[in-house]
């Protein structure tokens, strides 16, 4: 599958690139970003996928998270997809900031008119890794995944459902129990329909109660996050971990909010968490 290079830039001895390709899953042109660390010049390296939150793009993490310097030191390739299809020309897809464009919720929609294009789960778990491993020096059996907010929800559900494909996982302020909060109810009812039993497969708290992930899950949450009680519900995840025996490190940080200032602060801990598994550092 061909990819188009939008731009490439030297950064911390590695290469920061922004690319696009036509996706068979979404039926649209999809954009993604890849940071290749200096070690990738000589060998294949582990790939760590980051899923961004509502309204974000493939550029948000690479520009705002402060991750590239440490990724270069640790020898981790960073991969960031866009947060939804764009330009599908579905009526209403651009009407709201928390649904449609920029809000794919990392699921495969089953309801019309969304089902044809909004297939971010299959895109992130199958199509994009295949593309990355074909075109970049990424190890094919050594991937990690993490994300923020909506992307934290995506990272957790993907890892819980496919533990054999994702060797490490973490999240910043994830939407932990989306079937019970306004963001999730809005997205799931439109993408998946009114049957709430179909929603459970994309709810990390429900999935974790059923089956634990084999490794440690790291989650950071700010106590001054404006969405903490209404949208994120980390306590539901903590209770699910207690029920299943999941090895979960849920850290709560006084005064931190939902922004990338929070993410920057604890990014080194997350990259180190993944490197311990993916590079045995």
Structure report:
The chain is of the alpha/beta class and 281 residues long. Helices cover 33% and strands 23% of the residues. The protein has nine helices and nine strands. It has a nine-stranded mixed sheet, sandwiched between helices. A hairpin with a 2-residue loop joins β1 (4-11) and β2 (14-22). α6 packs parallel to α8 (234-244). The radius of gyration is 17 Å and the shape is globular. The two termini are 33 Å apart. The mean pLDDT is 97.
Count helical runs.
Answer: 9
Percent helix among the residues?
25-40%
- N-C termini distance: 33 Å
Counted beta strands: 9
Most strands sheet: 9 strands, mixed
Counting helices, strands and paired strands, the structural category is: alpha/beta
Q: Residue ranges: pLDDT <50 for 5 or more in a row?
A: none
Strand residue percentage: 15-25%
Strand order of the largest sheet: 1-2-3-5-4-6-7-8-9
Query: In sequence order, what are the helices and strands, one letter per element?
Result: EEEEHHEHEHEHHEHHEH
Computed Rg: 17 Å
The whole-number mean of residue pLDDT values reads 97
Overall form:
globular
